[in-house]
Write a structure and sequence with these properties.
CATH architecture of the largest domain: 3-Layer(aba) Sandwich
Shape: globular
Structural class: alpha/beta
Strand order of the largest sheet: 2-1-3-4
Radius of gyration: 20 Å
CATH class of the largest domain: Alpha Beta
Helix content: 40-55%
Distance between the termini: 38 Å
Number of helices: 10
CATH topology of the largest domain: Rossmann fold
């Protein structure tokens, strides 16, 4: 399945849905998303409030639905979830719910040849596709298709909003390429708490090493810490990164290990990996989340980036 095929399918759905769109009441439909990234995209496309089950700092790999979550999901007109085994602890429940309600795994529409294999599970894939704007643009198209198919009254609004949002995504991708190109080649090693940045590294020419694996449920042993310390010391990399949704204990072990070998290593900043920033902030949007990550990485590893990010809205300095 190619990007052009997804785009053609989406536009056909939008046009067909707009013809038969019924009117909604004053409150509009109820849309629930598992992650903030999906909720953010759905809200941008519809102009409506979208409920996210997982807020800032939450880890989707280990998240289990609460009683209040179940009530929200049961009342929703549409449930959007990521798929690709991101919501591993919720997957069985969501698949069961899909027998009776519109429940759509939006990242499952991605072409398999664009996905990275999962290191722990055969026939599964790295779910962190929001780290590559070109892949996330395809997921946004699938979100738009799901919304327009299930809630056809929203189709005209979505058809209007989608091109502008995709233009912003493309602009972010261009900024990312420009800023990260300023990082010295020998410093293009991104080490963080878990392996959430593989798509980022593939897209922008960075070697990526996670202390833990693709899931935060995996554990990093002493041998893994020692291996990464040796790599960081040999490459003279100046910084490693913590993540806002993962404990920083293992990252600090790297700093201590490097110091024991005479290499000064610092925390370059906190990256948004599996969750966005505070609600209501620029970093609490997908665009702001990626902008913050890119700006933090570039500045910490010797590159050049505006302290306030692509459009001057970052609230925290790198």
């Amino acid at each position: 399945m190619t990007q052009s095929f997804l785009t053609r399918r989406l536009m056909m759905t939008l046009m067909a849905s707009a013809v038969t769109a019924p009117a909604f009441g004053a409150t509009g439909p109820t849309i629930v998303a598992t992650t903030g990234m999906i909720a953010d995209a759905a809200a941008r496309l519809t102009g409506l409030p979208v409920t996210s089950l997982m807020g800032p700092g939450m880890d989707p790999h280990g998240y289990r639905q609460t009683r209040s979550d179940i009530a929200k999901l049961a009342r929703a007109d549409l449930v959007l979830w990521h798929g690709l085994y991101l919501e591993a602890q919720m997957e069985e429940f969501l698949l069961h719910l899909a027998r009776n309600r519109p429940v759509i795994a939006v990242a499952e529409a991605l072409p398999r040849d664009r996905l990275r294999g999962h290191e722990d599970y055969a026939n599964r894939f790295d779910p962190h596709v929001w780290m590559d704007p070109t892949l996330w643009a395809l997921v946004v198209e699938e979100i738009a298709r799901a919304l327009s198919t299930t809630l056809p009254g929203l189709a005209p609004q979505i058809a209007t909003a989608l091109p502008g949002y995709q233009t912003e995504i493309a602009a972010l991708d261009r900024y990312t390429r420009e800023v990260l190109a300023s990082v010295p080649p020998e410093a293009r090693l991104l080490v963080s708490a878990h392996d959430a940045f593989g798509y980022f590294g593939r897209a922008y020419g960075f070697e990526v090493q996670g202390i833990q694996g693709l899931s935060t449920n995996s554990e990093a042993g002493l041998s893994r810490i020692a291996e990464l310390v040796d790599l960081l010391v040999a490459r003279r990399v100046p910084a490693v990164f913590v993540e806002t949704s993962v404990s920083d204990r293992a990252v600090r072990a790297l700093i201590e290990g490097a110091a024991a070998k005479g290499h000064s290593l610092r925390i370059g900043g906190a990256l948004y990996s599996d969750a966005m920033g505070p609600e209501g902030s620029y970093e609490g949007t997908w665009l702001g989340m990626i902008d913050a990550n890119v700006t933090t990485i570039a500045r910490a590893l010797g590159g050049q980036a505006p302290e306030a990010g692509r459009i001057g809205q970052l609230e925290r300095s790198a």
